[in-house]
Design a protein that fits this description.
By secondary structure, the protein is mainly alpha-helical. Helix content is about 80%, strand content about 0%. The protein has 12 helices and no strands. The protein has helices at about 5-50, 60-85, 90-95, 100-110, 110-130, 135-165, 170-190, 190-195, 195-220, 225-235, 235-250, 255-270. The chain is globular.
Length: about 280
């Protein structure tokens, strides 16, 4: 039976957010750097086996593109996981989402998209500013940096996709991302903790849920659906993240925070709904 591309995208969204919820649990044991480095390192052999990329006949610009993509990928995951140490999953995802939303608004150059981006900014204020005394500003900063890096990731992903077929560029970039994050993970968590059988088992689950499965599903889906539809479906990530945070981590958001999240999701759908938009995929 042929799986509809919309089901693939939604499956990827659910997978990555529930993977993030599992990551939040592991962060309590080995820290953010240990968790993200373990996730990426365990995803490497799986993606290399699937893609089987080759570096033969590659130009210097090809290698530069995949190295830059890998560095951004590693730092994006690292800063996002640092935010998960301090913020609920739904809140962290909502703040991070401003990065690709802002990029989409800038590249579309439509007035209504800038208005939508402004509404999303109001939503982020509602998510975080309802009780200013209790806001973890360092966590907010990490999530915001992750959002900026997510925007860079989108641009570099497009460039890498033009230069490498299938999942080749992604597989090679995750090797680079692992090289960036793994030394930090070992330095902060320690080899004994990272290599414990239980940690490795949970880490493998996170690698599959947060890297292998969603990236593969999204790549397959984009071959059979319009980018605008893809962007609308991806707009559900903050809501799915909040749901995963509640079901797995018992992180219950307030009505004000949920209203702010709805602003961000609505703004994202408004920006990406026009198929002729020049905005990149969110």
């Amino acid at each position: 039976m042929r799986v509809p591309p919309t089901a693939m995208v939604l499956g990827g969204v659910v997978s990555v957010q529930f993977g993030g919820a599992l990551a939040s649990m592991l962060i309590a044991r080995i820290g953010a750097a240990g968790t993200v480095s373990l996730r990426l390192a365990l995803a490497v052999p799986i993606l290399l086996l699937i893609a089987r990329p080759s570096l033969r006949k590659r130009s210097g610009r090809d290698l530069l593109a995949v190295i830059a993509f890998g560095i951004v990928l590693g730092l994006m995951n690292l800063t996002f996981y640092f935010s998960l140490e301090r913020l609920p999953l739904g809140v962290a995802v909502t703040i991070e989402f401003i990065g690709p939303l802002g990029l989409a608004a800038i590249m579309s150059r439509r007035r209504r998209d800038f208005i939508a981006a402004g509404a999303a900014a109001v939503g982020v204020v509602l998510v975080n500013g309802h009780e200013l005394a209790k806001v973890d500003w360092l966590g907010v900063a990490f999530a915001a940096v992750a959002g900026v890096l997510w925007a860079c990731y989108i641009l570099l992903s497009a460039e890498t996709g033009r230069r490498f077929a299938q999942l080749d560029g992604l597989a090679l970039s995750i090797v680079v991302a692992t090289a960036v994050t793994l030394p930090i993970g070992f330095a902060t968590a320690g080899a004994s903790e990272l290599l414990h059988w239980h940690t490795l088992l949970v880490g493998l689950s996170i690698a599959v849920l947060s890297s292998v499965l969603p990236y593969s599903l999204e790549t397959l889906a984009l071959r059979r659906m319009r980018p605008a539809i893809f962007g609308i479906l991806m707009s559900l990530e903050p809501a799915v993240g909040a749901t995963a945070g509640y079901l797995i981590l018992n992180q219950l958001l307030t009505p004000v925070q949920l209203a702010g999240m709805a602003c961000v999701v609505g703004a994202s759908i408004a920006i990406t709904r026009t198929s002729g938009s020049e905005a990149p995929d969110i």
